[in-house]
Design a protein that fits this description.
The chain has about 325 residues and is of the alpha/beta class. About 30% of the residues lie in helices and about 25% in strands. The structure holds NADPH dihydro-nicotinamide-adenine-dinucleotide phosphate (NDP). GO terms for molecular function: mRNA 3'-UTR AU-rich region binding; NADPH binding; quinone reductase (NADPH) activity.
């Protein structure tokens, strides 16, 4: 069997533990296809798995997301053919030249959508979609707060919330990101990196714009923003904590939800909003349609070679990026 290049993690740690290795090329088992990976998406979850924040069985190949071309079809696979472009968001092992995928995990990519674009839109697009439709379903006229609004999820979330009729207040960490978040449709952008105390300065700034507070906060930043997020909500608002880019939030006393105005705290994860095939297909087709119609703009920050995977992780973790990072094996 031909060797294929992949990134492997044999011990948890910093970006330096991402090692380029040669592994055996996968073969298509029943119900699976083997795909030549054109682009693998880099996501925050890859950094949590690498560092051990989400412990993994070692060794493992990182990367849950990508897009590529089917090169081999396993027994019993009827609706997919060799040469077809597909994308995925739930398969471990995407930082590699080839990956084996269960047919239930792949989405055929519409002809007019480039594979890079498909890889860039999957995981973060599906996430933004379930956040605005299901975690807190945005209503026309709502004001919502989106943290890291110029990030991968943030840019898509901002666009989808605006499309549903919301006024988006975004937070960002630089001048350049402020411009990018405004272009994505945010009406107001706050520089939380310049605030002395986010816990008090953020709600004051939000209430300067919307005196009663926002209907929902979408918070993927976590530790540094949680307190300020809670204090920015209006009565019975929705605190949607979906990530921990700055670190995990300390344990929360439920009484605080009472004091914040009977607010609802949720800590959702994508897998629970894509568990059923019908739901996955609805979300993926909405994302692809948005791209095809030009309603959803997917920003690719930078492409890296497989060898540069550590550099990509460093860039993502150091807040240096805006939009999607891709690896091109
Ligand atoms: P981003 O592109 O948004 O990158 C993270 C951004 O967070 C940074 O660019 C930075 O933006 C901001 N940030 C603030 N403080 C820090 C810090 N201390 N360290 C690093 N970044 C910081 O990443 P993604 O779009 O990939 O992911 C965003 C969040 O969404 C992550 O927490 C991720 O885990 C979560 N997520 C959750 C999912 C779910 O289903 N629950 C699914 C997918 C992602 P700025 O410079 O503007 O502050």
């Amino acid at each position: 069997m031909l060797p294929v290049r992949a990134i492997q993690v044999t011990r948890h740690g910093g970006p330096e533990v991402l090692e380029l290795v040669e592994l055996e090329r996968p073969v298509a088992t029943p119900g699976h296809v083997v795909v030549r990976v054109e682009a693998a998406g880099v996501n925050f979850i890859d950094t949590y798995q690498r560092s051990g924040a989400y412990p993994m069985d070692l060794p493992f190949v990182p990367g849950k997301e990508g897009a590529g071309t089917i090169v081999e079809v396993g027994e019993g696979v009827e609706h997919l053919v060799e040469g077809e472009g597909v994308a995925w968001a739930f398969t471990q092992g995407s930082y590699a030249e080839y990956v084996s995928l269960s047919v239930s995990d792949v989405y055929p990519v519409p002809e007019d959508v480039e594979l890079d674009m498909a890889a860039a839109a999957m995981l973060q697009g599906l996430t933004a979609h379930y956040l605005v439709t299901s975690s807190y379903a945005v209503m026309p006229g709502d004001a919502v707060l989106v943290h890291a609004a110029a990030g991968g999820v943030g840019l898509l979330l901002t666009q989808l919330a605006v499309a549903r009729g919301a006024t988006v207040i975004g937070t960002v960490g630089s001048d350049a990101k402020e411009r990018i978040a405004l272009q994505a449709g945010a009406s107001h952008v706050l520089r939380y990196d310049l605030m002395d105390d986010i816990a008090t300065d953020l709600p004051a700034a939000v209430r300067g714009i919307v005196p009663e507070g926002v209907a929902a906060v979408y918070d993927g930043v976590g530790r540094t923003t949680f307190d300020g997020s809670l204090a920015s909500l209006h009565r019975r608002g929705a605190m949607v904590l979906f990530g921990a880019a700055s670190g995990p939030v300390e344990p929360v006393d439920p009484q605080r939800l009472n004091s914040a105005g009977s607010v609802v705290l949720s800590r959702p994860t994508l897998a629970d909003f894509t568990a059923e095939a019908e739901e996955r297909e609805w979300r993926a087709s909405d994302i692809f349609h948005g791209i095809l119609l030009g309603d959803l703009s997917v920003r690719i920050d930078r492409g890296y070679s497989l060898e540069e995977a550590a550099e990509a992780h460093r860039a993502l973790e150091s807040r240096a990026t805006s939009g999607k990072l891709l690896l091109h094996p």
